[in-house]
Amino acid sequence: MTARLVLHQADIARALTRISHEILESNRGASDLVLLGIPTRGATLARRIGAILAGIEPNSIAPGSGTVGFLDVTMYRDDLAKNPTRAPSPTQIPAGGIDGKTVVLVDDVLYSGRTIRAALDAISDLGRPRAVRLAVLVDRGHRELPIRADFVGKNLPTSQSERINVRLTEVDGVDEVTIEGGES
Amino acid sequence: MRHLLSTKGLTRDEAVMILDVAEDMADVAGREVKKLPALRGKTVVNLFFEDSTRTRISFEAAAKRLSADVINFSAKGSSVSKGESLKDTAQTLAAMGADAVVVRHQASGAPSVLAQSGWIDAGIVNAGDGTHEHPTQALLDAFTIRRRLHGASARGRDLDGVTVTIVGDILHSRVARSNVWLLTTLGARVHLVAPATLVPLGVGDWPVSVGYDLDDAIAGRPDVVMMLRIQAERMNAAFFPNAREYARQWGLGDERLALLPAASLVMHPGPMNRGLEISAQAADSARSTVLEQVANGVSIRMAVLYLLLSGASEGLG
């Protein structure tokens, strides 16, 4: 099966930089901002966006300050009974908590929207943020729930038989997004 | 994992995975909403043929934190006291739609009979059977040791090189058996200390060393000293002259506590006989993990129930 390369390393870097600016623009700065990445690759992306934000606004975000966290949604999924058992990954919330903050959920691919539904449930068990936004690297369509991303790296119209692979250096050794399969 | 019947069959990776999932479950205890929706709509039956308070409420708390429904069934005052067989009890529970059955039974092997008989199609968790095994107790002990030794970086690690001395009634202790298998699987070195009358016959085949003198064992500076309860209900022969003699020879009293390295952990599965196998000072010292063991028990049992009950029936391992 052939895999078609749709985003190179530079494309991913540019998309994340743009998303970071958009987050700062819509939040009017970096105050009360919490990035929550959904493991595995969403967590990596959240870490990268956090680093870019600190570079853009070094005065309002001290380097290494706790604005980036990780939110595991395994326990909140609606397909737990249908798939093999999944081991959860750690959830790590920044020390300041999420009450009254603007939470930006970060994930790699937005597809059915069910992961984000689970994440919203998980957030409501952790506290009450002022607002929740959603940032994704790739939006591939085919939503099954009324969920929409606020910040999108790239819209990729796909067919449901295709597969999107997001690979990131920290996890997979290379930065790229490919499409596999399709009308074969 | 379909059932959890013993720790003997667990591989190192499976054991580490259970401990890692328990770390995530422990995080839930510190949150505002101490509940996860993972087992919504599942039914867990606590089937207790033997008296137990802490294990039963620990399983009950674990199941409830995962949003499962819990039914408690104790043999006293139930159909069992009217002479119902294990088979009929199991089939009754199956007819009620139990997804998991937590079994404590005075007969060794009762949980594995339930798991293999086909009377009931539910995950079986052994919560202590006779003098055979008590796997969740061993898992929570390993979890407690790992957390104390490695702290926040405990995930993914085993107990390589940790020295554990288990003291007391090894003969009747299912806790000791489960701990021997699990701790050695995780890489720890286990030393048993007991009166010669309370050492089981086949101990030569176990992956442990055996001694009869607690002072010698303490001089060896173990990382962990685990005191076992003298089980009055199983003391049906003259295993030792009397309680005072036992306390002097094999109890962790104040003098022995002072000789123990400051970093060593003092563990006890509870309920404690203060003044017999453990002195009040040892039980209440900062080195004692007794209350942590209780708290960690809920996390471990949440992890086990989650791994058994979530996922399509084949699941992991």
Instruction: Briefly note the CATH topology name of chain A.
Output: Rossmann fold
Oligomer: heterodimer
What is the CATH C level class of chain A, in words?
Alpha Beta
Strand content of chain B: 5-15%
Number of H- or I-type helical stretches of chain B: 11
User: What value does the Rg of chain B take, in angstroms?
Assistant: 19 Å
Find the biggest chain interface: A-B, 21 and 24 residues
Instruction: Give the CA-based shape of chain B.
Output: globular
**Strand order within the widest beta sheet of chain A:** 3-2-4-5-6
CATH superfamily annotation of the largest domain in chain B: Aspartate/ornithine carbamoyltransferase
Coarse shape of chain A = globular
For the report, how would you describe the main beta sheet of chain A? 5 strands, parallel
How many independent structural domains of chain A?
1
Mean residue pLDDT of chain B: 92
Name the CATH architecture of chain A: 3-Layer(aba) Sandwich
Supply the number of helical segments of chain A.
Answer: 4
Characteristic terms for this protein:
heterodimer, A: 184 residues, alpha/beta, Rossmann fold, 3-stranded antiparallel beta sheet, globular, B: 317 residues, 14% strand
